[in-house]
Structure formats: structure tokens, C-alpha cells
Amino acid sequence: MSDNLESLQQALVLWTNIAHKLWEARSALLPRNPDHSPGAPGDSPVFSKEILGLYDGLDSLYMEAEQKKRQILERIARISPQV
10-37 pLDDT, tens per residue? Predict the structure, then answer.
């Protein structure tokens, strides 16, 4: 059971790191200026269809990683001795 707990803890670290990287990537797509304006005239829109699609894809992957983390935490809670 100790090996199983250790494997679950390693999986939790892995999925936590994946979720964090997806969060960073998703956040990098957000505009940097406080008024969310597209910038100077002639600049491309802040949220093009491609950027929105990429953002949605990263968001979906992030949510999946968070779900994996919750599942692993539930399994750890079931096999860990009660304190």
C-alpha cells in the first residue's frame, strides 16, 4: 500500500505541475493593458478567433488536469490512514 500511496503522490505532483503550466500558458494570452484595448490603430484585435480558440483549448486542458488532481486526492484520502 505504501508503493501505491507513493505513486499517487507522484501523480499528484505531476498533475499539479501540468495544471500550473496550463494556467501560465492560458494567462499569457490575456491582454496586458488594463483597459483591454487592442492597442494602436491597425493592430490586430486582442482576442482573434485563433487566440480565443487557443484559450478555450488551454482552459479545457487545465480543467481536465484539475479534475485529475481531485480524483487523485480522493484516492489518497481513501487509502491514507485516518489521523
Answer: 999 999 999 999 999 998 887 665 555 5
| Whole-number Å distance between alpha carbons of 68 and 36 | 33
**pTM of structure:** 0.74
The C-alpha angle with vertex 63 and arms to 53 and 82, in degrees rounded to 5, equals: 175
The continuous run of DSSP H or E covering 1 comes out as none
DSSP states of 21-83? HHHHHHHHTS-SSTT----STTPPPTT-HHHHHHHHHHHHHHHHHHHHHHHHHHHHHHHSPP-
Residue showing cell 491582454: 31
**What cell numbers appear for 38 in the block?**
487592442
Say how far apart CA 68 and CA 76 lie, in whole Å.
12
